[in-house]
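Morning run. Coffee first, then this:
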Amino acid sequence: MSTSRNVAFFGTGLMGFPMARRLLEAGFPVTAWNRTQEKAAPLAALGAQVATTPGQALERADIAILMLAHAEAIGKTLLTAETAPFLSGKTVVQMGTIGPEESKTLAAEIASHGGRYLEAPVLGSVPQAEAGKLEVMAGGEKALFEELLPVFRCFGPNPRWVGPVGAAATLKLALNHLIAAQAAAFATSLALVQKAHVPLELFLEILRPSAFYAPTFERKLPVMLDPLHAKVNFPAKHMLKDVRLIRATAEALGINPTLVASLEALFAATEEAGLADADYAAVARVIAGQ
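And here it is:
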């Protein structure tokens, strides 16, 4: 694929901005759109065009990449009467986190307007997006995935084709479930030792060389200790959205949702505590009863 193909990038938030920047650095012409335009404006200094409407961005593009918060936002952006006519002949790549059934519905909608569709959610956070080290997982036609490899390699070195539409979306939810569960489990353990006045460093000295240690514990420890002043890599409100998708998908597959329901309750309480825009590790405050 030539880098002369024009890319419309929808959603230039925490993850989308560095991803769009990497496309520009690789030589792809990029038109950026974001609901709050000031988040897309800095890309202009890097060579991007900044569209004022979704239709304007899509009209210029061969490929549309979506890094939007949820399926509802996608519908309000692409599937309106003003924008949908521009989908004909376009390739739409959905890279945010949505449910597998939502992805299948979106694929059908795109096809009905004459476009092609691939889901390609990513695993990783802001540092990985900035460094081009995201895990890209694609679902859809394998030939389309292979056609888009030059784009995906801007985001991560080893893009993977998972299977049909819905497969990659499910895989992403399975992985995000582990992220949410690990955060809640680690926060609970921290609260136990801190409230019992067990030295935190002793707990960590025993944990670090153990078989059940996870690198994410080290990264999230300072956030859990001071979530109100920590850099946000993934907001708690987005984790709550993902956990709700995980629960719905688990229930649809006949999986006992008890654990996921507990995670949903914890992240809902985090949002209710005014921490929706804090990093998801702020769930530690709720767990500790702060």
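Residues 7-164 form a domain with the Rossmann fold fold (CATH 3.40.50.720). Good start to the day.
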